[in-house]
Amino acid sequence: MTGCVSYFLCLLLFLFLSSSNTLSSPSVSYPLCHSDESSALLQFKHSFSIDNSSDYSFYYGCPPPKTDSWENGTNCCKWSGVTCDKMTGHVIGLNLSCGRLVGRIHSNSSLFLLGHLQSLNFSYNDFRGSAIPSDLGKLVHLANLEIIYSNFSGHIPPDISYLSKLDSLILSSYSFDALRLETSTMKRIVTNLTNLKELSLDGVDMSSVHNPLSLTNLSSSTSLSLRFCQLKGNIKDKFFYLTKLKSLDLSDNENLTGFLPKSNWSSSLEYLGLSSTNFSIDFPHLTKSMKSLNTLYLGSCKILGWNPTLLSNLTQITSLYLSFHNLGGQIPWSSLNLNKLIKLDLSGNNFSGQLPQMYSYNLSKSQPIVEPLPLNLEFLDLSNNKLQGPIPRSLFQLVNLGWLDLSSNNLSGVVELYEFSKLTNIQYLNLSFNSLSLSRSKIFLNHTLPSIWCLSLSSCNIKEFPYFIRASKYLYTLELSFNQIEGNIPNWLWNVSRDSLRYLSLSHNFLTGIQQLPWKSLFYLDLRSNLLQGSLPIPPPSTRIFLVSNNQLSGEIPSFVCNLNSIEILDLSNNSMSGKIPPCLGNFSDSLSVLNLGMNKLHGMIPLSFERGNSLRNLNLNGNQLEGSLSQSLLNCKKLEVLDIGNNKINGTFPYWLGSLPMLQVLILRSNRFHGSISGSLKSKLPFRRLRIMDLSDNQFSGNLPSNYFQSFMAMMDAQREKMKYMGDDYYQDSVVVTIKGFSIELVKIQTILTTIDLSKNNFEGEIPELIGKLKSLKGLNLSHNKLTGSIPPSLANLSNLEWLDLTWNELVSGIPQQLTEITFLAVFNLSENRLVGPIPRGNQFETFENSSYRENSGLCGFPSSKICNSSEAPQPSQAKNLEQKNEFDFWKVAAMGYACGLVFGISMGYVLLSKEMLVVMIRRRVGGERWNRVLRRFQG
């Protein structure tokens, strides 16, 4: 996921820097400005601070602050970003885009004294989450209002609708939920702003707007963009009948449905964006009727009637995006208008074959004629396909190429990196996760890529840092993970892009040493899975994500971590860190989301004290030598989803108060010194209602099983209703160790459909409660090594999703309920070391369990035990019919089970569960042939 985030930020930066008009200066004509307006501008300037190191300034490549030229006693009409009327001298335009402004605009701001303003641009600044001022409605002469990614939040003021002269309204939000638009405001905008030609509300939350797409009053509109607006429902055909519309973008509204109209469609449309929607696109109709299209975004939607030859109908196309559609076969180069094409995105499909030599095809003749490719292509993304073979040398002739992504394919061969130096305009280059080998050719030592700002060469068989980046001043992302780089980081690298580098991934290499990192704006640092030794590396204070797990670091956690005031994710797990946990780690209430110190040698008490309003989502202290009790300050962690303190020396009674945490999904207390009953005093009506994984094993808990909790585990009752996804966020995937059939298995990603309870190795007594059968989403249940009595409740048969059940080493009596054969996903089943009697049930999965599942239950009889049941005990014939056929079916079902459930025991678990004889019969039937019979005979012998 981190790659996705890096990709998104790089794409945003690429698109911004590729725009030739965003930061253009207005035409220069200098009348004398009015003194009162000059004073108002200076007062406005002084109400803000200027932050040259802010994220906004860096993300958007902002030039020096425009307000630097604003000085008292000078003509304000000459100031950068200020435009005056040539006749009257009044200030009519204010463009502070990328002004590096930090602060808030208050209602008494001097800005509103500029009553003649016709154009106002506040884009790419930081207004600290304040609301868009309603007093903008007083600037009644405004024709153009543009506010893009400026950290405004809250509701868009209805006063915007007073600006009846608006020709262009652009209000795009930096965060997807920062700006919101209500129904009443939307209606007023549509009703009053009838002169609008351009309307853009990208990123504005419009989820509460009723019928948000009834915009037919905007008959003058030529451009409409509503991306990332959380629009939903079926779009009306009449919405498309804005006859003057040339640009329409509704992308990234996943719940928006509809069809393109079959008739009366405006033929003037030049730009159409429907990516990441549920729109159904009649591709033959689109390519036939929309002849004027030059830009088409159709990624991740529903294309009907796909035929690659139809692409030749799009004769004016310059930008084509058809990503993530599972399109297969060869890339249809001959159907693309390569003479005009500037941007091409076919990523996330199943295109196969080799990349051809980059030539165009002249289709004006009776047969295609191969011609040299025009040097127009600026953007090429073929990532996440099945392309094979080498990278053709002709690709390096695309000298205008600024973005090249060939990652996650099957490309092979040796790449001479100096070839890329011919791409003098390259800014984004991603060759990661292929089978390529990057050459160390000495000729490359003389070449550089000075314009590069995103470079990803993960899994490229690199053995040293690429020397060609030594002169790169604007590098933003550097990904070199999963390579063979060893030793220390070279000295020359410390001087590369010291002011700009934000994202650095060097994980899964063989690095042994690293010094204090010099990149002062670093945001993301990934050093996982290397051979780093000695003390913890020191990241810059700007670091927000610091991942250094799976190394050989030792010593105490240094005090400098207390200086990481913006840290969000800190993962130091699987090292040899010793000493005590710094108390300051509990003080990062505003930022810290993940704290993973697991699998180290930390000791002493847990000193963390969490304040109210903290952001902690994952706390992992597993596998240390910590002692004492848990602090009830964890109750302040209202966002906590994962709490893992297993394998320590923590004591005390069960922390029942954790049940009131509203988001808690994973609770691991295993292998500690907890004791007493776990029923406790319930502080909330439904304690642990979101809990999915509960592991209290190997403690000293006693008393009855917690029936009061079982009836409130709502997530274990209806988890199947949710879509399968992984726990975590864009930068960090949660992981957990679960016990399956006595084996500890690390799930490096936790699926939200995984639900387990492990209460083994305690002193629980009494009967297994019937109501445990309500937990129908359970995948695993382990109650072994306790003192449970009574019989096995038939209600366990209701656990239809159960895959493993362990009740060994208890004092259970009576028979095995026949109803348990209804659990058809059961792959691991163990009832040994109890006092069970009677016949072993037959049918379904019970035909796959061997005698080891029932050992030391002397009263059991029937298959697979050696004890024969008497006539009164024998199972009914219907239970054992079609045994061989059932065995075969169950084997392949069990083999697929690992994939279906996200667990790590697919085919191998199938082998464990079935006897050697069963496997022989099944494989012979599936494969057959004398040759296989010989192999199987050797296997039997």
Automatic annotation (TrEMBL):
Its main location: membrane. The keyword Transmembrane helix applies. The keyword Glycoprotein applies. Residues 34-85 form the Leucine-rich repeat-containing N-terminal plant-type domain. It is found in: Cell membrane. The chain crosses the membrane at residues 891-914. It is a single-pass type I membrane protein. Belongs to the RLP family. This is Receptor-like protein 6. It comes from Ziziphus jujuba (Chinese jujube). The gene is LOC112490689.
